[in-house]
Design brief:
The complex is a heterotetramer.
Chain B lengths: L2 H4 L7 H5 L1 H8 L5 H27 L19 H7 L2 H32 L6 H9 L6 H11 L6 H8 L13 H29 L3 H10 L3 H12 L1 H17 L2 H6 L11 H10 L4 H30 L1
Helix pairs in contact in B: 4-16, 6-10, 6-13, 10-13, 13-16, 15-16
Chain C lengths: L1 H37 L3 H4 L14 H9 L2 H32 L5 H10 L5 H14 L6 H25 L4 H8 L4 H12 L1 H17 L2 H6 L8 H9 L6 H36 L1
Helix pairs in contact in C: 1-13, 3-13, 4-7, 4-10, 7-10, 7-13, 8-9, 10-13, 12-13
Chain D lengths: L6 H17 L1 H7 L2 E6 L4 H17 L4 E6 L2 H14 L5 E5 L3 H7 L6 H5 L10 H4 L2 E2 L2 E2 L1 E14 H7 L7 H11 L18 H10 L15 H16 L12 H9 L5 E5 L3 H5 L8 E4 L12 E8 L5 H10 L3 H11 L2 E2 L2 H4 L2 H4 L5 H9 L9 H17 L5 H16 L1
Parallel strand pairs in D: 1-2, 1-3
Antiparallel strand pairs in D: 3-9, 4-5, 6-7, 6-8, 6-9, 6-10
Helix pairs in contact in D: 3-15, 10-11, 10-19, 11-20, 19-20
Classes of the chains: A alpha+beta, B mainly alpha, C mainly alpha, D alpha+beta.
Chain lengths: ~350, ~325, ~280, ~425
């Protein structure tokens, strides 16, 4: 177990800069999720932490040790890959024990460690098989077994669940959470799935184009996204963005938009400087409720999902998605008014996209 | 678990720090590792290909006649090249090379394509038939040459006998004594030997064509021939282009089979450039002129490859 | 409509069989004929009337070939040269191929093309200088020298073919192994090579067959019986005062036998390798 | 870093490599009593002949082991050139007279003038036997045996048709035409237009008055006479008296044609006697005749195969081996297996030879036969210019005039 510190890490392939000045501090036992769309550099960052790729600059420190010039094999980390990367020619037992074998651990000790890990993951009955004879979920467990048996300073997960079907993914997600709670090892976890990020991480770093957009607790990321990109990336359905002009009447803030005016009383932000200027309001669909006052528009699309009903409202030419209860099933073309909880609204600067 | 013990240990003894295995292991972690891996083969290729080739180039500008030590080994600049321009045998060999290469490739391609299309239907028994059909490619040139030499022998050859039995020939035919049939027979033997190369590559290409395309064509009502013309051949274009260029290189460069079958005869009717250069070197011992002939071959090949690659790219757009 | 389609499919299946069987006969007939010739007595070969099936079977031709020619030495030389060629290719080519397959570095594409372009150099142009170079380093007329010469055209092929096989082993496996405690070379030897084993065998067989068959370099770069290979020996035996047809046929059979067997065993993997190399090339 | 070919540099290199080659066990051993012998024998009968000579030699010199290596004619020059340049020479090499000048120029041969003049059997040989292995007064080899040109003919067919054995080339042509019957698959003359066919062409030109090498040492063809010779020789095919396969027929083909009863005559030398006799009955089915006379001279070659010392380090043991071929017992044993004539006059008078009527034609030829023209480049010119040019006449691709012009141009190129 160890802390992880990344300072000013850069990476470029020729003239292409894929990581720009990354800074991250993770406490001992923390669970860091690197979240972002594909190509944002999150996997490259993970490879640099693992030592699989050299960085073009900056420092990576695991525990107290600067590992810039330490080979992957000597960093005392473990990694779970998207494709599991199980050695096809070896049995499950040898796969799990391979890292210990490499470190010349005597066989009896090694067998005990493998058994313990297999026990923990309930894959004891699979130990003599070859990876080719396993199902996707079983391979996933073996890959995790291979990681935990080493009792490393740091766990690295590279999109470990993306090859599983929806049901297994949820199951394994819970399993990983449980493992983390139980082992308490520091974890870095790469994913593009925001649910995984929200459910697993103690810290989330949202990345885009090689830059960390926001590095914070998941709750903060959700409630106070640092910019339009983060707001849009986190949450499903995605955050509504309502363009308008910020107005202050008698000290009360409101947003004038194409379809009327939205009262922003109770807004959490200090927005003084933006009064009278165009802003973008980020409104999460789940904060909208059917009400007498708020924003009004006509219903364009209704999508029942079972527990919820998604309603897309045309508000003066701008589309607003609301997640309503299953019983709220408005008709197409019907006029509708939704209340907005101003405490959950985030205002963004339309020029920079940053949160005001 | 006593983890501290099993994290990678630094070298503890002098032996460990000089242990060659360990040193290679350490070396493999450096950032120049990929180049180190390439080094042995690159050195080898430089030594056995690049250096001799450069040497060959300089040889073509010198007098080098092994059986005439009296003429020395001076620089003669373009003497050999000028001689070549006025050498009717060179031009004849060039023409023969063109015929030899184009006819062989055309024949090999046609048979190769047909075989690949047939094999690609994956009918029962195809696996065994594929082994038999691909086999000639792996036989030695020398043996292939002699096998056919025996079969095509005018007096003792089985082919004449068979053709006479079915009435295609009315007397024995000396295939290698008539300039027309000599070249044709050599081309047939060469094609027999090398068509499986096309079959191999085209089969691989066919596997890469999505089956959906054919299903769509079926629904659109395109027959097998239309499918061949509209789907198969266009999709195979790159692979065919690659196969053709590899074969051109092979055919231009290697005189083996002609050396065994005809030695360029009768009357130089099957004389090709590579054979001419070979004979110039090892029958007339004029290494300088042989070198110049080889250089011209090389330049022609490079020129061909360049134009060919460009043309096949232009067509793609 | 369904009726016509299935009958047309049947028709094309029949056509395919006719083509395949016809070609297979054409491909194998010369080999069968050579075999028949090799077990005929001379009177059945040099005749006015064609004798299709031997009136008398004899293995004399093989026996004579073995005892009267320097056949055992020649075959031994061929085996040594073939073995050395494969060994050199394995030692230098496998790691080069691995490097091309695993690392993305500046100049990689150009280098790979460079490996291919060397195959374009005319053998005739290379043989004379190679001869001189080999003499300078004392490798002329030696099996080692010949094997090294073979690498000039077999090594590039080996690298390209093997790269296809290495490519199909996931890169993440090495990452995993490196994190598990292997060095890069350890990961290559312990993890990737075992996975690419079939491909490695097939590529080696391909190179071995090519080396076994080679004629021109062997003819020019060996000057004595001590290093002469089998195809050259066979051709020299044919010479001017020609080897009797029966013995020549026996020699032919002996030289293709290992090729046929090896090819039949690994043909499927080998075909995949050749095509993978060429397709990407 | 460039290497120059040439005798001097090769000799220098030879010295340098001597030390290196001594390190190789093979050569270290060779310096003791093992010598290797390159020859151009390949046929079964020749192998048997060589084995017989070796057996006699081993009995006489148990301390010297001879390892024979067979280098057939078509590859011979390439291989010996390579070996000389590479300095992996054999101890002893068999050299035919037309190759002598090339090899001497290359520096492949060792001067053995002193050894030969001190040899007790020197007197057994006529001086002319050494002519084509002597250059500038230096002797480079010892004649081992003689190839005597002659013609094999189907005695039974000649008798059946009532034709006399020809003594002039014109008669030969007539006989060939008369014996030709394509319906029976019979042709009068097995013309060798393929590999090795160059020598009869040169002989024909000389028989019609155009030698290549003149008495004064100059080289050149008399265009008109040469054209006559080529025209005559090609007429055998033009007139249908030779099999259509002639342009590609080499040794194997003409022998097989004669053996299988396709052809009535073939032009070869004594060396193929045993091969022919293995299929046809000597004196009954086939006979031998001396080469008929041409309009200007009668040309039959006495080509000597010489044994030469090519590796000076092994000279002592090598000398024992090459002079052994001059022993009558060895020469006769070789003749009996092969049909090759002894080069030694003493051996040629052995009863085993003069008593055999089949050898009469050869004995006759010894009286008028002449050596092959020999000058540097002769072999290459004959093989890569004369032969293709003549083939072009045979296949109708060139007139005899054009072919002779080609030969003249090639000769100029070779001797330039």
């Amino acid at each position: 177990m160890a802390t992880l510190s990344i300072k000013g890490v850069r990476k470029s392939f020729g003239s292409l800069e894929v990581l720009k000045n990354i800074d991250i501090e993770l406490e001992d036992g923390g669970f860091l999720v690197l979240l972002g769309p594909s190509g944002c550099g999150k996997s490259t960052l993970l490879s640099i932490i693992a030592g699989l790729e050299p960085s073009s600059g900056g420092d990576v420190t695991i525990g107290e040790r600067n590992v810039n010039n330490v080979h992957p094999k000597d960093r005392n980390i473990a990694m779970v890959f998207q494709s599991y990367a199980l050695y096809p020619t070896m049995s499950v037992r040898r796969n799990i024990g391979f890292g210990l074998e490499m470190r010349k651990m005597p066989t009896p000790e090694r067998d005990a460690a493998v058994k313990k890990a297999a026990d923990l993951l309930q894959i004891e009955h699979l130990l003599e098989r070859k990876p080719g004879q396993l199902s996707g979920g079983q391979r996933q467990r073996v890959a995790m077994g291979r990681a935990i048996v080493r009792d490393p300073d740091l766990f690295l997960f590279d999109e470990p669940l993306s090859n599983l079907d929806a049901k297994l993914r949820v199951e394994m997600r819970t399993e990983i959470k449980r493992l983390h709670d139980r082992l308490g090892t520091t974890i870095v976890y790469v994913t593009h799935d925001q649910i995984e990020a929200m459910t697993l991480g103690t810290k989330v770093a949202v990345m885009r184009n090689g830059v960390i957009q926001q590095f914070a607790d998941p709750q903060i990321i959700y409630e106070q996204p640092a910019n339009v990109f983060v707001a849009a990336f986190i949450g499903s359905p995605t955050t509504n963005f309502l363009n308008g002009t910020l107005e202050a009447t008698n000290g009360l803030l409101s947003l004038r938009h194409g379809g009327g005016s939205l009262d922003l009383g109770g807004l959490q932000q200090d927005v003084g400087a933006f009064v009278g200027r165009p802003v973008v309001a980020g409104i999460r669909p789940e904060t909208l409720q059917v009400a007498e006052t708020g924003v009004s528009g006509t219903v364009e699309v209704v999508e029942p999902t079972g527990p919820d009903t998604m309603v897309i409202l045309n508000v003066g030419g701008q589309m607003l998605t609301a997640r309503l209860g299953s019983r709220d099933r408005p008709k197409l073309g019907q006029a509708m008014t939704l209340s907005v909880d101003a405490r959950a609204v985030n205002l963004f600067d339309p020029d920079s996209g940053d949160r005001i | 678990m006593s983890r501290a013990l099993y994290t990678a240990a630094p070298p503890r003894t002098v032996w460990e720090s000089i242990n060659p295995l360990r040193m290679i292991g350490e070396l493999s972690e450096t950032r120049y590792w990929m180049y180190l891996l390439l080094l042995p083969s690159a050195l080898l290729i430089t030594a056995v290909v690049l250096y001799p080739t450069l040497y060959g180039f300089q040889m073509s500008f010198r007098e080098m006649r092994l059986n005439r030590p009296d003429v020395g080994t001076d620089w003669v600049f373009f003497k050999h090249y000028i001689r070549m321009v006025n050498d009717p045998i060179f031009w004849l060999s060039l023409r023969n090379t063109a015929i030899w290469v184009t006819s062989s490739i055309a024949l090999e391609f046609l048979i190769g394509l047909t075989a690949a299309l047939a094999l690609n239907r994956n009918l029962p028994g195809t696996k065994l038939l594929a082994v038999l059909i691909l086999l000639p490619y792996f036989l030695p040139n020398v043996v292939a040459g002699h096998m056919w030499g025996l079969m095509l022998d005018p007096r003792l050859g089985v082919i004449n006998d068979l053709l006479m039995r079915v009435g295609l020939l009315d007397g024995y035919k000396a295939w290698f004594a008539d300039p027309k049939t000599a070249m044709a027979a050599a081309i047939i033997v060469e094609s027999w030997h090398s068509f499986p190369f096309f079959t191999l590559l085209i089969m691989a290409g066919l596997k890469g064509i999505p089956a959906d395309l054919y299903k769509a064509a079926d629904i659109d009502g395109a027959g097998p021939l239309a499918q061949l013309r509209l789907i198969t051949l266009p999709m195979l274009k790159t692979i065919i282009a690659a196969a053709v260029i590899l074969r051109v290189i092979g055919l231009v460069n290697s005189p083996d089979l002609l050396l065994i079958l005809t030695s360029g005869g009768p009357g130089r009717s099957t004389q090709v450039l590579s054979l001419y250069a070979f004979q110039m070197a090892y029958k007339d011992f004029n290494f300088g002129y042989a070198g110049a002939l080889s250089v011209v071959m090389f330049v022609l090949l490079m020129g061909f490859a360049w134009i060919y690659v460009r043309l096949s790219k232009v067509n793609e757009d | 409509m369904a009726q016509t389609r299935s009958s047309s499919k049947l028709l094309w299946d029949v056509v395919a069989y006719v083509i395949m069987i016809g070609l297979a006969i054409i491909c194998v007939f010369p080999i069968i004929w050579t075999f028949l010739t090799s077990i005929k007595v001379d009177e059945d070969i040099v005749t006015r009337e064609m004798v299709y099936f031997p009136t008398r079977f004899t293995f004399d031709n093989y026996v004579k070939l073995w005892f009267q020619s320097s056949y055992p030495t020649l075959v031994a030389n061929s085996l040594i040269v073939t073995g050395l060629t494969v060994l050199i290719c394995l030692l230098t080519g496998a790691i080069a191929s691995y490097s091309f397959s695993r690392f993305n570095f500046p100049g990689r594409t150009q280098l790979m093309l460079g490996y291919l372009v060397v195959r374009m150099f005319p053998a005739v142009l290379m043989i004379i200088p190679l001869f001189i170079v080999m003499r300078q380093v004392g490798l002329l007329d030696s099996t080692v020298g010949l094997a090294i010469a073979y690498t000039s055209f077999l090594l590039p092929l080996f690298v390209w073919m093997l790269k296809g096989f290495f490519d199909s082993a996931p890169k993440e496996l090495e990452s995993a192994a490196r994190i598990d405690g292997s060095t890069r070379i350890g990961a290559m030897l312990r993890i990737v090579v075992p996975i690419a084993r079939n491909g490695l065998v097939a590529t080696c067989v391909f190179v071995a067959i090519a080396a076994w068959n080679e004629y021109l370099f062997a003819l020019m770069l060996t000057t004595s019986q001590g290093s002469r290979t089998w195809p050259v020996g066979l051709q020299l035996m044919v010479g001017e005062f020609q080897l009797p047809w029966g013995m020549l046929a026996a020699g032919g059979m002996i030289s293709i036998l290992p090729v046929v067997i090896l090819f039949a065993i690994v043909q499927r993997v080998m075909v995949a390798g050749i095509t993978a190399g060429a397709v990407k090339g | 870093m460039t290497t120059r070919f040439g005798r001097r540099s090769i000799l220098q290199m030879g010295g340098g490599l001597l030390a290196a080659s001594a390190l190789l066990p093979r050569y270290a051993f060779a310096q003791a009593k093992t010598i290797n012998y390159w020859h151009t024998f390949t046929s079964q009968s020749e192998q048997a002949g060589l084995d017989a000579v070796r057996a006699l030699f081993t009995a006489a010199h148990p301390d010297i082991t001879v390892i024979p290596e067979n280098i057939p004619n078509p590859e011979f020059m390439a291989k010996i050139t390579a070996a000389v340049v590479a300095n992996t020479r054999p101890s002893v090499t068999m050299v035919s007279s037309e190759r002598f000048q090339d090899l001497r120029a290359m520096g492949a041969l060792t001067d053995i003038t002193d050894r030969v003049s001190g040899w007790e059997r020197r007197g057994d040989f006529d001086d002319s036997r050494f002519a084509s292995i002597t250059d500038d007064g230096k002797v480079y080899g010892v004649p081992a045996f003689t190839f005597v040109d002659w013609i094999y003919y189907r005695k039974d067919w000649f008798e059946e048709a009532g034709i006399a054995v020809p003594t002039t080339l014109a008669e030969l042509h007539d006989a060939a035409v008369k014996l030709t019957d394509p319906a029976k698959g019979r042709y009068g003359f097995g013309l060798r237009g393929g590999p090795g066919g160059q020598n009869p062409v040169i002989n024909m030109m000389e028989a019609f008055g155009s030698p290549v090498l003149h008495a004064d040492g100059t080289i050149g063809l008399d265009r008109d006479k040469a054209i006559e010779g080529v025209t005559f020789y090609a007429s055998l095919l033009k007139d249908g008296a030779a099999p259509p396969s002639a342009p590609n027929d080499g040794f194997r083909q003409i022998i097989e044609g004669f053996q299988t009863g396709q052809t009535a005559m073939i032009y070869h030398h004594t060396g193929s006697y045993q091969d022919i006799a293995s299929k046809l009955k000597p004196g009954v089915e086939f006979g031998t005749m001396a080469i008929p006379a041409g309009p200007v001279t009668r040309v039959a070659r006495l080509a000597y195969a010489y044994n030469t010392i090519t590796k000076p380090e092994d000279a002592d043991a090598a000398w024992e081996w090459i002079k052994f071929w001059g022993e009558p017992d060895a020469a006769v044993a070789f003749l009996e297996k092969t049909g090759y004539f002894p080069a030694s006059t003493v051996a040629a008078q052995d009863q085993r030879i003069v008593g055999n009527p089949m050898y009469a034609a050869a004995a006759e030829t010894l009286g008028f036969g002449i050596p092959q023209p020999s000058f540097p480049g002769a072999a290459g010119w004959a093989e890569s210019t004369v032969l293709p040019a003549f083939q072009r006449v045979l296949i109708g691709d060139a007139t005899p005039e054009q072919a002779v012009d080609e030969m003249i141009a090639g000769l100029a190129e070779a001797s330039q």
